[in-house]
Write a structure and sequence with these properties.
The protein is mainly alpha-helical. The protein has three domains: 38-181 and 361-408, D-Maltodextrin-Binding Protein, domain 2 (3-Layer(aba) Sandwich); 185-352 and 487-560, D-Maltodextrin-Binding Protein, domain 2; 417-485, no CATH class. It is 44% helix and 10% strand. It is built from 24 helices and 14 strands. The chain has helices at residues 38-45, 62-69, 80-89, 101-114, 125-133, 141-147, 150-156, 162-167, 193-199, 207-219, 247-251, 275-289, 302-310, 324-327, 329-333, 375-388, 394-397, 418-432, 440-455, 460-467, 472-481, 496-517, 523-548, 551-554, and strands spanning 52-60, 91-100, 120-123, 168-169, 172-173, 176-177, 188-192, 260-262, 268-270, 316-319, 339-342, 354-356, 363-366, 485-487. The strands form six sheets. The protein has a three-stranded antiparallel β-sheet. α18 (418-432) packs across α21, α19 (440-455) packs across α20 and α22 (496-517) runs antiparallel to α23. It is globular and about 70 Å long. The model is unreliable at 1-35 and 551-563 (pLDDT under 50).
Length: 563
C-alpha cells in the first residue's frame, strides 16, 4: 500500500522559473558604457554626513548562526560589513526584526500586506508586482542609471536583461535585482565511488546505467553491514531542491519540468506539462515502490534527508556544485567514503542536455517616500568592489578561512561566472605550474585545496571536489564547451495571470507529481495537464508567447540596457 502525498501550500517558496535567462545569452559586458562622469563617480561612492539610518528586515538560519559563533566580536547587527558601510558610506544598517525560515516569511508576508515594511526590502517577483501595483515602492530607474558603478552594471547585466525585465513594471525599474548566476544551477550526478568500486560497477554513461547503480546500491549491501538499509537515490519533499531534487534525473528523459522551452511551432511551452515528464515520473514511481528511495522522503526537507547521507545510507544524488559540502559529513562517519561528480546522462539515444534556471529570484525594493532610495545601489557598489573590484579584500569580506562572511551583508550580489572563472584560473595555473598568478577568490580556493592535499585539511576535500581537476566545475566547463546548457526561454517577469495563479499551479504540480511517485496511476499526469491549462496555464502560455513574439524580447544578444 502506498502513501498518498498531499502537498500543503507554502508561500515561502521563491519561484525562479519566470526570471531565467534565454539560450542565446552572452556572458560578460552587456554593452553598458564603462565610464561615469566625475559627478556620478562622486555620487556612487560618497558618504552621507551626518550618517543616515537605513532599515531592513533579516532572515537568519542555523548556518548563519553557527558562523557568527565562530566570529568573536561580531553579531548579525554589528559586524565587519555593517561597520564598513558606516565607515565608507555613512550608512547605518538597522534591522526592524530578525527571524528564521518560515517565521521570517510569515512576518514578511504580513508586513507587506499591511504596507508596513522597512526602507529597503528584499522581495520575490510576486511581492514586487504586488507592491508596485499598490504604489508602495519607489521607481529606481534614475537611481540605477546615476549611482551604479561600471563594475556594478557589468555584473548585474552580465547574463542579459532577464532579471531587469522581471523588475520593470510599466516601463519603470521598480527594484534592483540581486544578481546571481544561471550556470550555478547546473546539475551534476554525485555518486559514492567507494560503493561503485566495492560492487564492481563502472561509471554511468547512460541513464540506464544510473538505474542499475541505484538498484545495486539498494539491494547489494554496499555498506557491508548485512542489512538492506541503503537507498540508491536521495530525494526531498520539494522535488526541485538544488540538492537532492529530480531536475537532473528528469533531464535524462528530455523532461524539463520547471522551465519554458521552445515548442515545435517556434513558440514557448511550459516544460512541466510535456509527455517526457510523464515517462520520468513513471520511472521514479517504480524506483520508489521497489524501495530504492527513502520511503519517507516526501515528509523530509533537505536537512532531514541529509541525515541519511550523514549516516552513510545514500549512494547517489543529483545536486549543484556545492553538493560536496553536504555529502562531506559521510566522511566523518566513514573515512573511506568517497564521492565524485559525474556529468548528467540521458537514456540511450538521447542527447545530454543540462537545464538551467536563474538564480536571480530576489529583488531589492525601496519604500515609497524614503528620502534616500539610492542607498541600495551604493551598498551594492561597495559590496562588489570589496569582493571583486580594484579594492578587493576577498578573504576579509567574502570568505574568511572557509567562513562565508559575505552573508553578514544585507545585500549580496556577485558575478555570475565568478566560480567558473576561479576554476579556470586554478586549472590554468595547475597546467603551467605557476600559482603566483592567482589572486582573490582563485587564490583562496587554491590554498584550501593545497592544504588538503599536503596537510589533510578536512574542509579542503569539498573544495577539491568542486574546483579540482575532476570537480564539478570541470564538468560545468565541459557543459559550456559542448553546448549542452538549456536556458529557460522565458525572461519576461511575472505576467498578470501568474500573479494570481502561478503559486496555485506550482503547488498542484508538486502534489500530483509526488502522488504519482508514491504510486498513484500515471494517468493522473494527463489530468494534471488538463487542470493546469484550465486553471490559468492557457492564459499564462498566451501571455508568455505574446512577450516572446516581440522583437525586443527575442533580440537578447543585441541587448544594451538603457537605464
Amino acid at each position: 500500500m502506498h502513501k498518498r502525498w498531499m502537498y500543503k501550500t507554502r508561500w515561502t517558496i521563491i519561484i525562479f522559473l519566470t526570471v531565467c535567462i534565454p539560450a542565446g545569452h552572452t556572458q560578460g559586458d552587456s554593452g553598458q558604457i564603462d565610464t561615469l562622469s566625475k559627478d556620478q563617480q562622486a555620487l556612487s561612492s560618497s558618504a552621507y554626513s551626518p550618517p543616515i539610518q537605513v532599515s531592513f528586515v533579516r532572515e537568519t538560519g542555523e548556518d548563519l548562526q553557527r558562523m557568527i559563533e565562530q566570529l568573536p566580536g561580531e553579531t548579525l547587527v554589528d559586524n565587519r560589513w555593517t561597520r564598513l558601510y558606516e565607515q565608507e558610506l555613512g550608512i547605518q544598517i538597522r534591522y526592524d526584526w530578525i527571524a528564521t525560515g518560515d517565521v521570517y516569511n510569515q512576518k514578511l508576508g504580513v508586513s507587506l500586506a499591511a504596507g508596513r515594511f522597512p526602507d529597503v526590502v528584499r522581495v520575490n517577483p510576486y511581492q514586487l508586482r504586488q507592491l508596485s501595483n499598490a504604489n508602495l515602492i519607489e521607481d529606481l530607474t534614475e537611481v540605477y542609471r546615476d549611482f551604479a558603478t561600471p563594475l556594478t552594471k557589468n555584473i548585474l547585466e552580465a547574463e542579459g536583461k532577464g532579471a531587469f525585465d522581471a523588475a520593470t513594471i510599466n516601463g519603470k525599474l521598480m527594484a534592483i535585482p540581486e544578481s546571481s548566476s544561471s550556470i550555478e544551477t547546473a546539475q551534476y550526478l554525485w555518486i559514492r565511488t567507494d560503493w561503485l568500486d566495492k560492487l564492481g560497477l563502472p561509471a554511468p554513461e547512460t541513464l540506464e546505467d544510473v538505474l542499475k547503480i541505484s538498484e545495486a546500491f539498494t539491494f547489494r549491501d554496499p555498506d557491508g553491514n548485512g542489512e538492506q538499509d541503503t537507498y540508491g537515490l536521495a530525494l526531498t519533499s520539494y522535488l526541485w531542491d538544488p540538492v537532492m531534487g529530480v531536475s537532473g534525473f528528469m533531464a535524462g528523459y528530455g523532461a524539463f519540468p520547471n522551465i519554458w522551452i521552445k515548442d515545435s511551432e517556434g513558440g514557448l511551452a511550459y516544460g512541466g506539462i510535456q509527455p517526457e515528464v510523464r515517462k520520468a515520473l513513471k520511472v521514479l514511481q517504480t524506483m520508489y515502490l521497489e524501495g530504492q528511495l527513502d520511503p519517507d522522503f516526501a515528509y523530509k526537507n533537505g536537512s532531514k534527508e541529509y541525515r541519511l547521507i550523514q549516516q552513510g545510507k545514500i549512494g547517489m544524488l543529483y545536486g549543484e556544485q556545492w553538493t560536496p559540502f553536504v555529502v562531506q559529513s559521510t566522511r566523518e562517519e566513514d573515512p573511506e567514503a568517497e564521492w565524485q561528480a559525474f556529468p548528467l546522462v540521458a537514456e540511450a539515444g538521447r542527447n545530454n542536455i543540462v537545464p538551467l534556471r536563474s538564480n536571480t529570484g530576489n529583488y531589492f525594493a525601496v519604500r515609497k517616500g524614503f528620502a534616500h532610495p539610492e542607498v541600495v545601489v551604493k551598498l551594492m557598489n561597495l559590496h562588489l568592489d570589496k569582493n571583486w573590484g580594484q579594492n578587493a579584500e576577498y578573504e576579509t569580506y567574502y570568505n574568511d578561512d572557509s567562513r562565508a562572511v559575505w552573508m553578514l551583508s544585507p545585500v549580496t550580489p556577485f558575478p555570475g561566472t565568478k566560480n567558473l572563472d576561479a576554476y579556470r584560473d586554478i586549472r590554468d595555473a595547475r597546467n603551467t605550474g605557476d600559482f603566483s598568478v592567482l589572486e582573490n577568490e582563485a587564490l583562496a580556493i587554491h590554498k584550501r585545496i593545497a592544504a588538503y592535499e599536503s596537510e589533510g585539511l578536512k574542509s579542503g576535500w569539498g573544495w577539491k571536489q568542486t574546483y579540482g581537476p575532476k570537480g564539478a566545475f570541470s564538468i560545468a566547463d565541459e557543459y559550456e564547451r559542448n553546448g549542452q546548457l538549456l536556458y529557460d526561454q522565458f525572461t519576461g517577469g511575472i505576467t498578470e495571470t501568474m500573479v494570481d495563479r502561478q503559486i496555485i499551479l506550482r503547488d498542484l504540480q508538486l502534489e500530483v507529481f509526488m502522488n504519482i511517485i508514491y504510486g498513484s496511476p500515471i494517468e493522473e499526469f494527463d489530468q494534471f495537464v488538463e487542470d493546469w491549462l484550465e486553471l490559468g496555464g492557457k492564459e499564462i502560455t498566451s501571455e508568455v508567447n505574446a512577450w516572446y513574439r516581440t522583437d525586443a524580447a527575442r533580440d537578447h544578444q543585441a541587448f544594451a540596457l538603457s537605464y
